[in-house]
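Now read the record:
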Amino acid sequence: MILSMTGFGRGVSSSPTKKYTVEIKSLNSKQLDLMMRVPPYLREIEVEARNILAPALERGKVECAVSVENNVAAAPATVNTGAIAAYKTQIEHMAAELGLPLPAGSEWYQILMRLPEAMKTEVSAAGEEDVSAVREAMKNAVDALVAFRVSEGRKLYGFFIEKLDNIARLLDAVAPYEAERVPRVRARLEENLSRLSSIEYEAGRLEQELIFYIEKLDVTEEKTRLTAHLRYFKETLGSETELPTQGQGKKLGFIAQEMGREINTLGSKSNHAEMQKIVVMMKDELEQIKEQVLNVL
């Protein structure tokens, strides 16, 4: 069974003082593209977090966000007097240089208290209990995301089987037109030659050239190889009852490319309107497969 690269997972865990929520979102990507957002005091565990995520997720454009809530009363914020004094001095210098009026009375408070870092809250460094809580929340989020990927993988599996069966049916539909195509080509060539009454030709040599030309239009090999590719694609998908496996997406992409080559060659050799219509329908089915293969892990 295949896994999807698309997924979402959430994990929650608590330390004695804080509640941590980890949310992980994954989209398709050729490699692992991991972006993390963690509170500043948890930066020290970012490397460990990446080591947890990388082997579990393997590929995808992954966003991991860690948010925190206090389980106890938050530490009171205090006025950052030093920053406010510096702001006031700069405003006074600016007013003097530009000839602007200074704020009056209580206006100073309204202006200064809105400026960045006017208030400060003491944030303690992450303790071992906090690190353990974040680690647990992250593992829970990874498990939820993997479960989501499994669910999406089942949907992709059904989609691929349907499209592969459609291509196989279309390939079977080529046979009747292929059988009538050779006599029609031969009759057309002979008819055109009969109009050239002034040209003499050797019947034996003509027969050889006709055989050579008709052999160039033969699509037996292309049909055989395409059938083999369809079978190999299904084998790579596995069965619905098998455990999910990682790393099948790139392999399926390569097989789809080979399928495209055989379908294109079949179209170039068809020389028959109905066969070309079938080839177009096969290309449409294959294009849908290629689009969804990009989502397979």
User: Anything to note?
Assistant: Residues 78-120 form one domain.
